[in-house]
Amino acid sequence: MIITPVTTSSEEGHRHLERLKDRFLSADVQCRDAVTSIIDNVRENRDMALLQFTRKFDSPDFSREQLRVTDQEIDQAHQTVSGDLQETLDLAIHRIRTFHEREKEESWITTREDGTIVGRLVIPVDSAGLYVPGGKGGRTPLVSSVLMNGIPAAIAGVKRRVMVTPPDENGLVNPALLVAAHKIGLTEIYKIGSAWAIAALALGTETIPRVDVIVGPGNQYVTEAKRQIAGRVRIDMIAGPSEVLIVADQSAKPEYIAADMLAQAEHDAMALAMLVTTSMELANQVVQELEAQLAALSRADIAQASLKYRGIILVADTTEEAITIANDIAAEHLELMIQHPYHWLTRIRHAGAIFLGDHSPEATGDYLAGPNHVLPTMGTARISSALGVETFIKKSSVISCSRQALANDAEHIKKIAELEGLTAHANSVAVRLNKR
């Protein structure tokens, strides 16, 4: 049996739940040290380091002249990519843009009767770097990553948006990636990948000016590089293995559940596919469906390894218990395949994205529904949100006091300043009012 269902009340069920509540993964020492060395190399050698790494891992004959994608390459990509795919990209762009337009925040100002003016300015960062994984040497271009990262940055008003993605062995980028990027206004594209791409974006090189925000998924080296440069620049999040949690009752269809668990499991062997159901009968039917559907997948070996070593099916006593477990797990993707899902929606407190009903597979959110698919993993949905327009903006407070307003507040400011032992703070008010 590929997964053995267990009850939540059993000892094994308790162990599963405890592990799921504390599943945050840190990089291993070898990866951490390797990334530190890569970042130091890029800091010291800049473009030369990028060329050395790219020649070693991606394209043996890569040259500095190939670092930036040319207008000619973009034009050629438009001629190569089929009209049907371009039409699909246009639809996805429209959906994603329409959704994220609603996330825009406005600057605001408010006044008080004493003449004080306070407010907040909402300002986009100057530049953003978008990392797009190579996808099997460019054979499986992750166009959705281009759209999900690039569109919110544009809506935020970021003037300089840079895309980096590793080249194939011939020093080229898959045309579909270039078309997707061009359609959303990305024309500054560099052919670099892995941790050295993150380092270049954060530190800058002769060819690649540094950026203020870095977003986008990647392998453990990309993730660790983002962790190490966080603070110097803003990052979207520290991402772990992708995950889905399906909450299902006896009304759910086992073939749908199995299909969605497999869709998660095919990402990689570390992907986490979870089911919490109130029906042991349904749990066993799902296991049968998993085994039946697995054979037809192009990535069956990866999905099988994921399910065998990471897949979990738990049987709870009630839907209420299942919802409580969902909140404890705080999954990246949460599917509610239960009767009256909107009733239970109000009880969900922690999830990256929530999919309601039988006809809302996670794949809709990955590609075409509109909401962003860059979501918190490893339980961090308890404290963080999906990537959005706010990832690319910052906020400055505005304060303007009239003389009368300062006079009205002077004694209160003085009391707090003296309590904190900051007499210069108190004096900065007193000197304006001739009160020593």
Structure description:
- This protein has 436 residues and is an alpha/beta fold.
- The chain has three domains: 6-25 and 240-369, 3-Layer(aba) Sandwich (Rossmann fold); 29-107 and 125-235, Rossmann fold; 401-433, no CATH class.
- Helix content is 47%, strand content 15%.
- The chain has 18 helices and 14 strands.
- It has helices at residues 11-21, 29-45, 47-57, 71-80, 83-101, 135-138, 143-156, 175-183, 194-203, 220-229, 254-265, 280-294, 300-310, 319-329, 341-345, 362-367, 403-419, 423-433, and strands at 6-7, 108-111, 117-124, 127-131, 160-164, 188-190, 213-215, 234-235, 243-248, 272-277, 312-315, 333-337, 353-356, 393-400.
- Strands 1-11-10-9-12-13 form a six-stranded parallel beta sheet, sandwiched between helices. Strands 6-5-4-7-8 form a five-stranded parallel beta sheet, with helices on both faces. A three-stranded antiparallel beta sheet has the order 2-3-14, with no helix packed on it.
- Helix 11 links the parallel strand 9 and strand 10.
- Helix 2 crosses helix 9, helix 4 crosses helix 8 (175-183) and helix 7 packs parallel to helix 8.
- The mean pLDDT is 96.
